[in-house]
Amino acid sequence: MDALLHTMRCISQYEDILCELSHEAKRAGDLSPEISEELRGILEKIPAHEYVLDLEAVKGAFVKPKTSRRVGSRKPAESAPVRKSPTPAKKKSRRASSR
Q: What mean pLDDT comes out for the span 26-46?
């Protein structure tokens, strides 16, 4: 995590000059060859690749990866026996007593 913080501090030192170049480019309406050259030099100094590596290292060390469920990765459930619908009990017919 210390390496990530160090890399972020290195990157942040270019924030002010990038803001100035951005404003100058907006004001001029286009990037002049001088601005383009200066910007190219700054972008080459920014440790972007190191930032990505440090970030991935921190993620790997501290963040638990989410387990993803894959379709079809589970065993199919065993089928339960098919139940027959219960048949209603037959009513006994009662004859009226002939008394």
A: 91
